[in-house]
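Fill-in record for SDR family oxidoreductase.
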Amino acid sequence: MPKPVHPDRRPAVVSGASSGIGATTALTLAAAGFPVALGARRVDKCAEIVEKIRAEGGEAIAHPLDVTDQHSVDAFAKAVATDFGDVEVLVSNAGHVSPGIIHEVDTERFATEIDLNLLGAHRLVRAFVPGMVERQRGDVLFVSSDVAVRARPFMSSYAAGKWGLEGMAHAMQMELEGSGVRVSIVRPGPTWSEMGTDWEDAAAGDVLTGWIKFGLARHSHFLKPKALADAIATVVSAPRGVHLNLIEVNPEAPLEEK
């Protein structure tokens, strides 16, 4: 049977929680007192994070989650409801980017990446938001990217997906106004994560060269995932009556020599 939810107990779901921003967000929310359900395809990695959370006195569970598979999303939502009861917070973070020139990328690959970065978020919305609306309480947070407002070369499907994600989020903000469900966006700038670690060196070099050429890499600093996790925790912890609808987080430039 689902556990009864105390008004101050706010179970949170984090997708893409096996590494990077997602894993750090799960740790940060758990430390702040949120029971956290971690979801990712690499559920073994999530299980390691769950062990760490529990060792530190937090409450966490992990279940397999592939946001490109409707059956996986449905099974995940059912498992979380059984373990935690009603979900109060949804952090939609799962995403992936591969380098490529738009006219050279196969349409099938392009569609697969859009499916993960945009449609996957919608599947999570369908699974968790109707219950929030019914209860008149909830937070939905989409982890976007600064490519949504400053497209970067060689990341075409990722840019298209994040533009679409923010469009969906802004529409939801209007649709859910007055419902008790807050929809928010955290928009990271360049961040150290596992994204890009599977690229070939030449492709990574082309991407970074393109960033520099078009003024998209003004300095060498990158964010650590904890900066984004802290921003996410701040948004979903805002008191009722306050809606932090969009936060963009960028790395501070190194000090210039005088």
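KEY FINDING: The two ends are 64 Å apart (CA to CA).
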